[in-house]
Structures
1.
Amino acid sequence: MRFERREHRPLYLLIVTPIIAVIAALALSGILIAIAGAPVLDAYWRILIGAFGSRLSATETLTRATPLMLTGLAAAVAFRARLWNIGAEGQFYLGAIAVAAASSKLLGDLPAPILIPLLLLIGAFAGMVLILIPLWLRLRFSVDEVVTSLLLNFIAVLFVSMLIDGVLKDPLAFGWPQSQSVSDHAMLPKLIARSRLHIGFAIAIGLAVVVHFVQSRTVFGMQSRAAGLNPTGAIFAGVPLGRTLVKVACLSGGLAGLAGAIEVMGVKGYVTTDLSPGFGYAGIVVAMLANLNPLGVVFAAIFTATMFVGADGMSRGLGIPTYIADVTVALSLLTMLIALFFTQYRIRR
Amino acid sequence: MMQLFDIIASAGLWAAILRIATPLIFGTLGALLCERAGVLNLGIEGIMTFGAMIGWLSVYHGADLWTGLLIAGIAGGVFGLLHASLTVTLGLSQHVSGLGVTLFASSFSYYVFRLIVPLANTPPTIVPFRPIDIPGLSTLPFIGPAFFTQTAPTYLAIIIALLMAYIIFRTPVGLAIRMTGENPHAAEAQGVNPMKVRYGAVIAGSALMGMGGAFLTLSAFNSFFPTMVQGRGWICIALVVFASWRPGRALFGALLFAFFDAFQLRLQTALSGLVPYQLFLMTPYILSIAALAVMARRARVPQALMQPYRRGER
């Protein structure tokens, strides 16, 4: 058995691929559900009902998809330029804590129309600062950024833990380590009344469209793609590799920081060290499921959020551990990798 | 100052260093073996988690400790097989495949654990490996309690490190591994099958990772809890660079790292209340990054690391 590179990839294959990958992942985790002794189809039906069965659950699923879209975009833009930013989790937390700090210590009195955009920028900026450390180490010392950006996640969460245990601690939280709340008028307006769905959802979709436009229509988009496809070739073609990577990193870290800012200002209002149930890591899967396409990220994030939100109800009903959602999402990354391979190669005997 | 000296002069510190270093030695050697053959294995964090879980679970269900360790090694090897299929046969991005393996292996561990052990306030425990007093040596003053009263897997880790150094630099198998990591095309011309070498190295390396994880539940602690690996896998990846891909230096690097870790733990108790404890917890990660920055330039990376090998394709 040998693999042969395909001459051209039919369009239908690129559209069908993610669907096949997701079905394969669902089938595989179906085996795990069956082993646990639960009816598989009923379990998936309950997940779907749990995620979209009522107005409340549907808005909850979209609320959960919002940070995933942003961390997914963060991974997608970086991976496309072959910048392995695995630090979205840390950038998320830094964005979140920057917003809490700025709102409670400095800017809380500003009127909402100025305060909200300003805080969003501050959150994005904090994420950018964090990713520039691994990038600097890569450009200056040629250290692979995977491990450095990952280790910074642990450092960032400990840093946040230190702040919410110290200077930013909320004195009204009964000794619980929790940051001071952002001021009321820093909270993002609701998109739908009587739900938690906030305007951050629209911002995330808007950014996906903007990123798609930047990547497909601008010089920077072309350069970042060239940097990812063939770094040496890109340098010969006159792409300023270092400068392009800095821009890509800022975009990626900024999106992840913004995800943290939006989660604080849209949902929680304050920061704890469990603000993110792994949004940064799930963003990697979201980006891969979308084949690094910014518009695909929107759908991949909604799929991932569906699994996470729906699994709660399913778990209560059938006694299957909620971790099945994480398993399915991780499996879909692996099946997607294999499916993508077969869009590029065919088997020849 | 006296306090610092007291900490360093205590046998307890040195005994702790070997204990802390053991999972790192297993993990670093495992990652090193994969990378020597040209495959980066970022699945390590997940594989260690799964090893910790399955090793514990086996013993909890009646297997003896050595069988538990063995099962963890086999499970690690299976994940290695998965990673090798994706990266060696299909030639997919080693970065992404490794992350996929990590995400899958760790969530799968939590799933299996929760399925079998229902939520309880106090996690169920097992009887872990007991320290072995090495006759003659363990009674030596200071050195005895510090270095010769460890549990069996710690001694095993040190033996494996020395054995691996011998295999890589002194045997034909080691030569084949090194050639495959440097230049698989040249290796093939010499009659080595780079695919087979890579599969073997990734499976064996991942088995060591699984055993490193199992040390946590079978020797260092006596129960399993999620997130217990706590980034040790990533630290191992950093230690491989620090060790310049040499098993002997990997052993040294893991011990050095464990020294700082054990030291900060004790300093943390000595200075509690004065300095936020989170600063101490950060030090292992900061040290890893610093080690990478210092060593990355000087280290000679296996030239074919992260390059997929396809016959007749360059």
Note: The CA atoms of residues 22 and 332 of chain A lie 5 Å apart.
2.
Amino acid sequence: MSNTSARENIFARLHASSIAGASYAPVAEKWVPAPIEDKAARVARFVELMSAMRTEVHQVKGDEWVGKLQEIMKERGLKNLVYGQNTEISKKLEAAWKGQKDIAPLVPWTADIEEFRDELFEASAGITTTMGGIAESAAMVLWPSPEEPRLLSLVPPVHFAVVKADKIWTSFAEAIEALDWNAKAPTNALLISGPSKTADIELILQFGVHGPTDLIVFVVD
Amino acid sequence: MASNAKFNFKKSITDALADKQLRANFKFATDTLRGKRLAVFSDPEETMHLRKVGNGLKRNVLTKLPQLLEQLEAKCKENGIIVHWAETVDEANNIVLDLMEKHSAHKMVKGKSMVSEEMHLNKFLEDQGKLPLETDLGEYIIQLNNEPPSHIIVPAVHKNRKQIAQIFADNIPGVSYTEDTSELLAIARHKLREHYRTADIGLSGVNFAIAESGTLCLVENEGNGRMCTAVPPVHVALMGLEKVVEKLEDIPPLYRLLCGSATGQRITTYFNMIKGPRKAGEKDGPKEVHLIILDNGRSKILADKQLRQTLQCIRCGTCLNHCPVYTRIGGHAYGSTYPGPIGEILMPQVEGLDKKGSLPTASSLCNACEEVCPVMIPIPNLIRRLRDESYDMDGEGVVKGHGFKKSLVETIVWKGWKLTQVNATCNKLMLLGVQLFGNMLPKVGPLKAWTSVRTSPKFARQSLKDLAKKEGIRNE
């Protein structure tokens, strides 16, 4: 187990090895991509780069995404949609599904993973909110929560995500600042830039290896 | 690959060079990866700036490594992560085993971790009756074939599609031969998803550990790393002690450098930042998170101002892709966990020059590795340094096993050479000897080996000195 003498020996060597008081002045101070000032340009860049990595992006206004979501689910014959309750999108989902008979069911994630695991591994799609997006690296920021657990964006083969257009920043560095990341980050935070992929066989890019095979993003203005 | 006394670098190079398929696979792979890197780092000025920033951040870490590791440990504890320290790979292996025993765990799903390769963890656990399962597709392929990785980033890059198809057909019950990559992918997906669901413990590496917040960062594309760290009830993370970074704001440039250098991506599919086990109210995530911090010689490397630059490495593997030697012989020929230029400077320092001192000879010193290194490690200089230490030139070597190449004959030859350079009479005699007998030297011993791949020089009848005396120096 945790070996205190190992710790002591390592630190003794580290302290003996490091050059005491040798502070280092870097040649170049910082690297921050130049901000894209215009919101429309940020959104356009985000959509362009996300789409390039085989993410399906739909730009919608207001609550239009719910109808679009139902449309896609029908088109693809998805058999259910797992979601988290008491989130910004959950009320809209529940309202839209109310009384609908010809649409695949909504499955709320209410139990701990131990009880929910088998159901989750059988699910065909999951939907999550996001904290926003990063234009220059084409990624979404996800902060899983008790309402929206981390595996919701990983286990179901299709992942739907909702990104607010006015929460699309230029760079990761900007997002860190805007979200007060250091103080507020949850147990597990994520950047997600596309469907699961690999190039381990002859460097051929293939999608859908362990996580979602499809990532479908609604950019909501 | 386990290091052993039988390691014969010359022989493994000869064997690798004779394998045409292997050379073709590597040439294709490294050409492709170089092209991708170039496409993402298309602006040389910005790339240089970014590399300088990366270099500064990592050098900064090395100047205050003990303080940062103490901070990391304290913050991790605050977050509920249990921190373990291991001086050697044996200690690290036993910590993993103890954790498995404590949780009555049999099956372990593993994300990609070079430190676990360094520990030969799979073999160790198998010998203890445990079932460690690699889940990164490349690692999965080579585990099926019972091989070590041949590249830091793309571990199965030495295999082409046909060879992989055969490995699947031979080793997975019920699978028939198919070269269709999407079918191969579906097979692996199906098999591994079942393992994620039922594994007792998950293991991962660490790309960056943030000291100020106690956050473990994992970089990956496949999602297997997230599966291993989020589905099983226990997560064990392994890191070399040099992986600590000071602040969250240091991450964006380092992450950009890592993705661009490793695979030519702007960003990977997943950047996973773990701050601890499942908290009250949360519905998933492991109930325990353990961090094992491994030394295995690293704290000693820190002592030498020049050699410590080795510890700046962020394991992107781009020096492998740009190395003319690696491209031709592939990763396995190095017989070491870390192949290529970075392996040439890291392995001898970790295992000793007497064991791995032949690795630094596998370099043309063309400087390609230094030109692309995202954190600007002067690899060729460090290779020269280790070559010097192999002969213990100044008698002040710090690397274990220094002076292992020193031989009486060579020492006498160099002493003699020195004499001919400092003593005018000896110099004259030497030049005269070369003029008269230089072209008659019999091609035996080292001279035979040397001339087997080189044209031997023809000595002139008159030395340059004599010519200069007679004719003067033109254009003076």
Note: The two ends of chain A are 53 Å apart (CA to CA).
3.
Amino acid sequence: MSAAEAGLMACGHCGQIMEHRDGPIACPRCGGSVRPRKPASLSRTWALLLTAIILYVPANLLPIMETSSLLVTSRDTIIGGVVYFWHSGSPGLAALIFSVSILVPVLKMCILAILALTVQFGWPLDRRQCITLFHVIEFVGRWSMLDVFVVALMVGLVRFKGLAVIEAGPGAIAFGLVVALTMLATHSFDPRLIWDSPRRALG
Amino acid sequence: MPSADSPSPQRPAEPRILPPRRWLPSAIWIIPALAALFALSLVIHALNQRGPAITVYFASAQGIEAGKTKVKFKDVEIGDVTELHLAPDRTRVQVRIELKKEAEGFAVEDSRFWVVRPRMAGSGVSGLETLLSGSYIGVDGGHSDKKSTEFTGLEVPPVIASDMPGRRFVLVARDIGSLDVGSPVFFRRIPVGHIESYALQPDGHSLFLSAFVKAPYDRFVTDGTRFWHASGVDLRLDAGGLKLNTQSLAAMLLGGVAFESPDGNIEAPEAAPATRFALAADHDSALKAPDGEAYPLVLRFHQTVRGLTIGAPVDFRGAELGQVRAITMAYDRETADFTPVVTVDVYPDRLDVVGADPKPLTDEQRQRRLVELVRRGLRAQLRTGNLVTGQLYVALDFFPNAPPVKLNPAAEPPELPTVPGDFEELYKQVQAILRKLDKVPLDAIGQNLHATMKHLDAMTARTDKEVLPELRDSLKEMRASMESLTAAMAGDAPLQQDTRQALKGLTEATRSLKRLTDSLDRQPESLLQGRKEQQ
Ligand SMILES: [Zn+2]
């Protein structure tokens, strides 16, 4: 039995329990806006997720970093960097970059898509597992910006005018957007829908 | 659930209903739409940027990396190496290049591709910047209208870009000397071009060099222009002193080619592109009158040719007309004898004949002229050039007393009759004398002489024993006779006196006879009347 079924709902900010209403009401304790569910949560999640998936393509194809030293200009994509580190004898670093920059975003987008599809079409998945998955992507989200941080750090550090300049490529922007969008999509997904949907489907 | 468990849940306060936000939930779909637009624009941009993909074959992929190596034209990136494969036959590498849209025009037939890497060439050091930046692929855009996607890369960068104005000439050389691709071409010591390439002719006898002369200078190359090796140092010591001649320090080290028109008449017609010029060994031989065509002659000597070497000069009264090309031995079936056959190359053009007939052009004319010369006594002769080493040379000269020879007109090359050499003549005469001497029966003469001597010996012995004493006696008797004779002839000898008296008497008788004849003459009657006394 869920809170909604009991005719109750909780304030998302302070946890105050109140009577279930359809429209948005002000929390009697903290004054925050309380709704039984996040409005248009699923469509928002879908939109943000789709945007992230679209942007993921240029994030991988466009160079993430442009290094210009005295004579050489090289543009490195994420995959190129992974391959470079792997061949130059740093498989650990290569694995780290691979997992953080490729594996985690893909994983995140997949999980989000599974959750959204579950809610959308009422797939009979185990609700507890779904919630675990949701917690995983929430936790992991803050780490997937590692690439962007590295690039930002390098751009700040290596800037000897005329000798060597590292600049963030368009891929970095796309990649940053992907990470931000997945975080936003995660945020806009209302996990309470997981509990609603099977019931709705069953009911 | 707590709400279910608690018996009297606190009634929640009356909620304050908030006004609904004026926000359309579907507005969120603007974001993916924008992203899709952005992605689409990227795709369109990438497709627009994409030029033709071409394949270039190189001998080796040294310095080329797929995804890293760029294609540059005038230091502007016009493409990337996307793939690198071994050609199926494993002799070459296949480099796949994606050109940019703007570089579409490079995918034409006569474009040339090469790998720019550091290299030392005749023109100097090039591609040094690639030491740090890595090699790239250089390109020289062609002007052809025919599109092409497959190219064979050059192993050495072209010396001259195809858009450089100027003309190319072909130099024919015996050997390359110290020249190389990129060696400079000098005109009055100004570097005006480069050697672009060289190729050995299939027969292996000569070498064709392609020389490029830059635009303002190419008009100085006329049909009469002479080219020569300007490599190295020309150091000579002559009556004028020590002379050092070199084009430039670079040419001294790396070699080069120089050209000049001997007459200095720039107005002469400019040489057409790809005109062939002979590349002379040095300046002097380049400006020498051209040899013209070699005229081979066959000489059959009936003597040894020991001391005659290939390349030995053919001399005509001190002028070097040519040289010996080959010496062979021929078997003559008729005489069953071996004769050395010497083939010589003669350059008749080396003779600057004053008031000569126009140069014979056809073989027939030449033939006729040779026949005429032979009729006037032209012969070849072997002469000793160096008495110490016995080096021989071939001399051509007129021997009016030489026995007439009929020239075989069909022989190709024609055979010039020979006369024995001076030395040979002397040798022959000595040989003839010796042969005659050989016929003298010296043995028999000796034996006869010996017998005669013996006989003489015996005779002498007999003379000693028999003749000499007799001789001595005879001599004694002779002396006695002589003495008696002397005595008889002496003044007071009786014989002498008798003779004198006899003569006196004879004189008296003669006188009386005279008197008689006188008186008879005067008085002939006295003979009858007797003598009368004078009155
Ligand atoms: Zn509250």
Note: Strands of chain A lie at 8-10, 17-19, 25-26, 33-34, 65-68, 73-76, 159-160, 164-168.
